[in-house]
Amino acid sequence: MAEHPAYPVGLRLSGRRVVVVGGGTVAQRRLPALIAAGADVLLVSPEATPSVEAMADAGEIAWQRRPYADGDLADAWYALIASSDPAANAAASAEAERGRVWCVRADDADQATAWTPATGHSEGVTVAVLTTEARGRDPRHTAAIRDAVVEGLRDGTLVAPHHRTRTPGVALVGGGPGDPDLITVRGRRLLAEADVVIADRLGPRDLLAELPPHVEVIDAAKIPYGRFMAQEAINNALIEHAKQGKSVVRLKGGDPYVFGRGMEELQALAEAGIACTVVPGISSSISVPGAACIPVTHRGVAHEFTVVSGHVAPDDERSLVDWPALARLTGTLVVLMGVDKIGRIAETLVAHGKSPDTPVALVQEGTTAAQRRVDATLATVAETVRAEDVKPPAVIVIGEVVTVGPAPAP
Ligand SMILES: C[S@@+](CC[C@H](N)C(=O)[O-])C[C@H]1O[C@@H](n2cnc3c(N)ncnc32)[C@H](O)[C@@H]1O
């Protein structure tokens, strides 16, 4: 049976009966894809792993708790035979052959009439890799080829241009805190496909060096803004490039909607009638503390964390932050853009009841090679920032979570 290569095909299983014999780890691995394909899955097995049982409890599959019996495949279009009972596997396989039901056998690829490819997905495309022959099958190699193709498509090292017309427009991409590995897969793909990238100072700057030479990279901080506000000048640059029919990526640090002015850009683009997609990013407010071994919550220590902007001092009339209320909270306070004003912030928190001994950590340039962490308390933080010359960008964490991890290296 295995002398000829397998014929690859995509089964459209939506609403069609698929019988799975055996509820062990093979079923656990394969069931999610069958469920995602909309198959009407019947599991026949006396036992199942807790994950498979959860799928049955959630109504994603039907489960008959009994051994395989002849006739189980009567209505099946496709069968996955993966029980731990060789006799049951052989009997189910024989029934599949008689009934002309395509059948995968986990225990004996030679006896199977179908093989499951190693699959991965990228951008609406399924990549499926099959070994040519049953003999000499090397599933790890097959999976490695799948990984290489999917990873390459995702990170742009394998370029497969779209031949349908690309919709010009803008993608507001959250680039994460700085480490180039911490951008999302979607963000990285859009970056690889961009004609123009308008980038902030913060975020994964290293990725810009990888872009092909034809991509125009514009530093948002250097856009001339004359009588305009800087933000208006950035909005105009986005609109103008998109109107020229280009694919524009606005690469932002962290998440576009966390002190990132993402909505202002989206609104300006909407007013200009330009399509815009927003790709979330990993915000520095959680990831930078994490990179310095500070969890923003910890069981029994903090049941809340609050992220605030410290770009204006607590007594500044433009401040929208209720600092006295924050001083009463028992959880974690994460302050972005607060290095310059940390002295006034600490004083205000203490004046409204927070202990001067409350631990504080400043994490500068988190997730990059230059990351450093400086520890203090509310009483000492202003002096520590001066003495240690802490500079933005830094995330400031205030609260007991600062001390739950291992002590920072001296
Ligand atoms: C304008 S806000 C943008 C926040 C961003 N949208 C986010 O979700 O992370 C800039 C502030 O974020 C913080 N920040 C961003 N990236 C950082 C990093 N790698 N290390 C430390 N702080 C960072 C700093 O407090 C900085 O002043």
From TrEMBL:
UniProt entry tagged with the keyword Cytoplasm: no
Domain of life: Bacteria
Gene Ontology molecular function: NAD binding; precorrin-2 dehydrogenase activity; sirohydrochlorin ferrochelatase activity; uroporphyrin-III C-methyltransferase activity
UniProt keyword Cytoplasm present: no
Family according to the record: Belongs to the precorrin methyltransferase family.
NCBIfam families, A to Z: cobA_cysG_Cterm, cysG_Nterm, PRK06136.1
Stated name of the protein: Uroporphyrinogen-III C-methyltransferase
Organism, as annotated: Streptomyces mangrovisoli
